[in-house]
């Protein structure tokens, strides 16, 4: 459809400037003497100042690993292909395991530690701006014993280990520029004892066995944020298939899931069906592989690890729940293909993944998105702290608060009612295509929705994403013609009937509990 162009509203324009220039520039620039300057130890994200680094952009990670489940010993060689963005005398990687050697462009480099996760590397000679650079890091360690700020992102399982966490997990198993602003392609090769499998992102390119070890070679050929890289080692039942369009589908289930095994399979085996439906909502699936995995971990959350979401068994403790699969697969478009510019932009991930669950409910005839919006609005009176969370900038301590999900979805229902279904679904489908394989902010989305709809939307988004109070009216559409309302009375002053899908959707609320609190759960 033709887009009607608007000058961005004040809200959109201001939000477009939200990421510091240093994040885009990648560091402090050249030193006066021309010998380079140290790259910044952070990428410029105020939520997580130590995340990411400045001075370079990574294009590709090649990880060659060996993991022993019995001891949790991980040995690795990471080869990182990058381009310098300034003259560099020194640069950082984010990493926590023990490093034995670093080489830059084939030459031995110096290295030291600082802070909780900074690996400071000094090349043999300064690096010139806009030149390709190859960094090789040899390392080893036990990820489950690595604690940063008192927590770990590594799950130890009865038969192996799992890396799946947000906003950070790479630090525990490979060196990286650990922020979504620096996405890269991946080759992940993992050797494990025979009888054990290694699951990762993308397509399994090959598998071979030698001297009691089996090596699995995985490839992700589209840009991927480092926190979306995953590794699961253990004993799995694996199912494979292809979609009607020829996409390879691989799902994996720990052999010891107990009573949750059937419900997990009944949910995750519908991955291809859900992805096909989501293509009708969000456009073509953005990657070349599909699937999911359920390891035997005690956590309760799920995570949108690219092409192969992670699901905790507890997501299926009350039976099959396809809604969580809908949520994580929606992230393949909203969060994975289009990633945040900064972690404060989390709404452009989570609000849309939650709203996709509402649309699935609508499609299944178990409650429309409007009915869910009315019900959730009514659940939270004006004095509920729910309304003090600002989904457009919740703060690092509230980044995964339920309000980011539910109030975030209410904002989308308000948008739908304001611009109508034709423009609304054009926005949902056009946005992932407009920003494919890149990064975007809340302000970018506001601007895009205004361009497509030809409607000023600053007040709507300010009300639903930024005001720390309950809006004066719910996201509900106007009442039918001829039906009047008393002054100050909304549709939700009386509690609406509970939609049939509500409890299944609410059962996935722990999907958002993958912040640093999970690490605290794993201290023992």
Describe the fold and architecture.
The protein has 524 residues and is α+β, with helices and mostly antiparallel strands. Among the domains are: 36-147 and 178-223, Immunoglobulin-like; 343-477 and 496-510, Neutral Protease Domain 2 (Neutral Protease, domain 2, Orthogonal Bundle). 26% of the residues lie in helices and 26% in strands. The chain contains 12 helices and 23 strands. It has helices at residues 10-16, 21-25, 261-268, 271-282, 322-333, 347-364, 369-379, 402-434, 442-453, 458-466, 502-506, 516-521, and strands spanning 37-38, 56-68, 73-84, 88-94, 98-104, 107-108, 110-114, 118-122, 132-141, 154-157, 160-163, 184-193, 197-200, 203-210, 213-224, 231-234, 236-242, 248-254, 290-294, 302-303, 310-311, 338-340, 438-440. Strands 6-5-9-3-2-12-15-14 form an 8-stranded mixed beta sheet, with no helix packed on it. A 4-stranded mixed beta sheet has the order 1-4-8-7, with no helix packed on it. A hairpin with a 2-residue loop joins strand 14 and strand 15 (213-224). Mean pLDDT is 90; it is low at 1-33, 477-492 and 515-524.
Strand content: 25-35%
CATH topology term of the domain at 36-147 and 178-223 = Immunoglobulin-like
Q: Tell me about the biggest sheet?
A: 8 strands, mixed
Query: Which value, in Å, is the CA radius of gyration?
Result: 23 Å
Query: What is the fourth-level CATH superfamily of the domain at 36-147 and 178-223?
Result: tricorn interacting facor f3 domain
What is the name of the CATH class of the domain at 36-147 and 178-223? Answer: Mainly Beta
Q: Which stretches are poorly predicted, pLDDT < 50 over at least 5 residues?
A: 1-33, 477-492, 515-524
DSSP helix fraction: 25-40%
Number of helices: 12
Total strand segments: 23
Shape: globular
User: What average pLDDT do the residues reach?
Assistant: 90
In CATH, the architecture of the domain at 36-147 and 178-223 is: Sandwich
Strand order of the largest sheet: 6-5-9-3-2-12-15-14
Structural class: alpha+beta
Amino-to-carboxy terminus distance: 55 Å
Domain Peptidase M1 membrane alanine aminopeptidase: 320-464
Cofactor: Zn(2+)
Domain Aminopeptidase N-like N-terminal: 60-228
Region (Disordered): 26-48, 471-524
